[in-house]
């Protein structure tokens, strides 16, 4: 027993170890992917002084970002953004860790704070300390937008898709539990009703036995030995009656007594339906009326339920009832045609009557099949044992069919997982997914527009040269005499191949790119050009 327990403990812990190994492997692969650009650039010639320690430090920093992406997902993008200050190859890791941060972070507030901190710090560093131009700042801000913010939005959308899938699965599970619980409650009510019927019938029989034993006990022509035996019999029967009352009587539900008239047969039930106006035809085998009590009750209940459903859902349709005996089984069939004028208006059926009927047939040791026919009618067929249910090892006298081998248990849904709660959670998850998708599509456009609105005034302030002023400029004019010349120049393009030239823009939105080039020689305008 001890070894078996140890094996179970090892088996239960192995999934956790397997998950840890998978996470470790995925982290190693992630580190290898993001470290490849940095390592390749660092170990490629020409080699700078202290190249190896510097590259090792960068790789360690990337390893720290990989570890942080599990426990502090928002710290990983900060680390790689800081690394991009000293090595531009860190930029390849920014979208990866930003996506993981969105995938692994539940709330939006901390992420927004981190991105604001990165933008503010990067702006102060580039414009204040490093003295980079507005164009370079705009480029870096755009990279941050599309390499960090957009992947984070995609990761968050994927996270909420997973939450939606989980909410859908929990909703299905809660609905399934609710349906199983409803079916189980119907089964239990039917079992309690059967128990009540058994209590009534057995209690009546036991009372008669006790009465006869009491009559024997007071008989004058009985000797003392037999009188004492009769008294013991009466006492045993009385005690058995009390135990029966305690064990089975508590299973009764209020109003759950059998509605079957005492001694009513299936033929009398069918005759009553005819008197009520139903077109019922019955075929019964000669020995079908002599059935065990539980089998007879089940047959009566089958016919009654089928006639009730036919009257409700197929008014005016002819109904055929047959009770035949085949070997040690009795087959009961109730078949009705399609209603001539269509079914009567009625609320949709929940199927509780058939569930209860199936439980009664199961307890009687039989099988039940019910379903619509191709011609629009309905058929209900059951096979019941003539000898009654086979006694089980527990001695209950109730035999379950092979498909009910599992122990009975009331599956009550968890109050926190009721279908209404699960459906509300599913609705919220769908709303969050729709909102995240909208934000993922709209936010980059909005951020780009905001960046443009911030960059454009800075880039164009004092650099706009209109075309009319450009056309009036004459070659050979001293620079100090040029009317309308802007007070500030644009940054010299990196592809410029001429010295002594100044660049201005016509105010094109949103990048304010260079439009005019004025070149001077000895302080005088030597050439003017429009830049395509």
UniProtKB/TrEMBL annotation:
Spell out the reaction equation it catalyses: ATP + protein L-histidine = ADP + protein N-phospho-L-histidine
EC main class here is transferase
Q: What is this enzyme's EC?
A: 2.7.13.3
The family database entries (Gene3D superfamilies) matched by this protein are listed as: 1.20.5.1930, Histidine kinase-like ATPase, C-terminal domain
Any Pfam family matching the protein: HisKA_3
SUPFAM superfamilies, A to Z: ATPase domain of HSP90 chaperone/DNA topoisomerase II/histidine kinase
Gene Ontology cellular component terms for the protein in this record: membrane
Enumerate the residue ranges of region (Disordered): 393-421
Please list every transmembrane segment annotated in the UniProt record, as residue ranges.
24-43, 74-101, 108-129, 135-154, 437-458
InterPro entries from the entry?
A: HATPase_C_sf, Sensor_HK_TwoCompSys, Sig_transdc_His_kin_sub3_dim/P
Keyword field: ATP-binding, Kinase, Membrane, Nucleotide-binding, Phosphoprotein, Transferase, Transmembrane, Transmembrane helix, Two-component regulatory system
Q: Name one GO molecular function term.
A: phosphorelay sensor kinase activity
Annotated Signal transduction histidine kinase subgroup 3 dimerisation and phosphoacceptor domain residues = 190-254
Q: What is this protein called?
A: histidine kinase
